[in-house]
Amino acid sequence: xxxxxxxxxxxxxxxxxxxxxxxxxxxxxxxxxxxxxxxxxxxxxxxxxxxxxxxxxxxxxxxxxxxxxxxxxxxxxxxxxxxxxxxxxxxxxxxxxxxxxxxxxxxxxxxxxxxxxxxxxxxxxxxxxxxxxxxxxxxxxxxxxxxxxxxxxxxxxxxxxxxxxxxxxxxxxxxxxxxxxxxxxxxxxxxxxxxxxxxxxxxxxxxxxxxxxxxxxxxxxxxxxxxxxxxxxxxxxxxxxxxxxxxxxxxxxxxxxxxxxxxxxxxxxxxxxxxxxxxxxxxxxxxxxxxxxxxxxxxxxxxxxxxxxxxxxxxxxxx
Length: 319
Known about the structure:
The chain is of the alpha+beta class. It folds into three domains: 2-96, DNA Polymerase III, subunit A, domain 2 (DNA Polymerase III, Chain A, domain 2), CATH 3.10.150.10; 106-218, DNA Polymerase III, subunit A, domain 2 (DNA Polymerase III, Chain A, domain 2, Roll), CATH 3.10.150; 226-314, DNA Polymerase III, Chain A, domain 2 (Roll). It has helices at 2-9, 54-62, 111-121, 169-178, 214-218, 230-239, 281-286; strands at residues 25-27, 30-34, 38-43, 51-52, 69-72, 77-82, 85-92, 105-107, 136-140, 143-147, 151-156, 165-168, 184-187, 191-196, 200-205, 226-227, 248-252, 255-257, 267-269, 276-280, 293-294, 303-307, 310-314. The strands form four sheets. It has an eight-stranded antiparallel β-sheet with strand order 12-9-10-11-23-22-21-16. Strands 1-2-3-15-14-13-8 form a seven-stranded antiparallel β-sheet, covered by helices on one side. The protein has a four-stranded antiparallel β-sheet with strand order 4-7-6-5. A hairpin with a 3-residue loop joins strand 10 (143-147) and strand 11. Helix 1 runs antiparallel to helix 2 (54-62). The longest helix has 11 residues, at 111-121. The chain is elongated. It starts with a helix and ends in a 5-residue tail after the last strand.
């Protein structure tokens, strides 16, 4: 039972503005958690319908070392007992907790390809409340996309996705925690559900798909892409402690600087990268795990890069 509860616990709200969302719903041998965006569900060997508070129930089950006995009291508390150990967990009425269930048509999605893409794309997901569409990964055509409004990255999935879908970061985080490829996917107008073995599922709301025209950004003509030398990312790591408050890195004639003045701050020689440009250090560092080739001569146009099954661009800064 503990593993089932922990699977679902990731979708339980940790905030108090809707207290009911801090509870599991256990109905018909299934336990569900819902935080307002993401719902997780798993079968559970328990035949009492109730809505116990999630965190203390997990702690109580985790503390059991002998056979577990569960009973709902007349005061609407779930009694958890294991030998001499006993805990009462507060419950709310089931009607007070929003109920979630899978809905929509089944989609032909390669779960393995999706799980290969999202760990690479997650660092590029935005967190701008004024651009909520950027706070997820969009599936469109044969690709998955992510942007933080400085970097835009496309990862090829292979087979085409039959619909355009924008999956929120919260759902992406839970998919990575689960660490399994979904066995099937279904979607309605405003939700998507990923099904897993053993009757488990993850349901999430969807974000707006009104993104900028991606092809105009990614398909533009590029210069020659050259392999990224290891010392480029080594240099980014070395100068990081000496960055100015603006967080910029200045590339000039084979040297990486932290300021516009060669005689101030820190620098690192990268003689194989003979380019001029100004970039946000944090954004360039994000490329380390994914970029194998870059167009270092692009500045002041967006810098293009490529990696395993992906491509993208990074915007520079004007002087």
